[in-house]
Amino acid sequence: MSAQTKARRVTAPDIRARKGGEPIVSLTAYDAPMARLLDPHCDMLLVGDSVGMVVHGLDSTIGVTLDMMIMHGRAVMRGARRALVAVDMPFGSYEQSPQQAFENASRIMSETGCQAIKIESGTYAADTIAFMAERSIPVVGHIGLRPQAALADGGFKAKGRNEAERQKVIEEAIATDQAGAFAIVVEGVAEDLAREITEAVSAPTIGIGASAACDGQILVTQDMLGVFEWTPKFVKRYDNQAERTDAAVRQYAEDVRARSFPSGNEVYALKREG
Ligand code: KIV
Q1: Count of Cβ atoms closer than 10 Å to residue 230 Cβ
Q2: pTM
């Protein structure tokens, strides 16, 4: 088999078939080089609207636009060969009507080449998910803590702290599932609620801050790599990139100040003619 052979891309039915099976490995990606590094290890890469906070320095995901998501989606598609790539629909691009959602989702899919879209799915979104799924758009739902609702909720708050809230999250999960989402991101709920949701729905659940009771996990890549000083408590840090980058750049600055770096003379001399 030649190195040129195209990898078989993970599909929405492949992810759906993982219900109750081997856990789904998922991370966020926003650019081509990182997507290339994550791709061999992940089943699904999400171009999350968290890009607004992680890459663009926004305070929330509210300011993220469709054009930003398309630009980052295209970059990730250039880096990822095997993993399913899902692109988040940003705030304001799908809530108005199923038609609005379909129009913007089809634009994301045709302009990026991604395999799926994700929407934050309160019970109100069931019609929208069904409308898109019936028209061949693979949809990932997102329930529990919904970052696009943070302003209305008064912050990024875990869900299911009382019985009424638990019931609401379970309703969101069932509505999202019955509407035809092929996977459901469950964010910010305790383990017993994550287990109840996972048992109640036919689609695999992918947890973030939702315990190992889900059918898989997704994290923000920069959180698990330790790019930021602060990370949510549920994130296991696998690296400390902030410290390592600081040390590397400190050394670079010292080298430049000491004029201690390769001149490149030999390389250019070889190329010089005559
Ligand atoms: O935008 C995002 O990165 C997400 C994940 C954290 C699930 O929605």
Answers
A1: 5
A2: 0.94
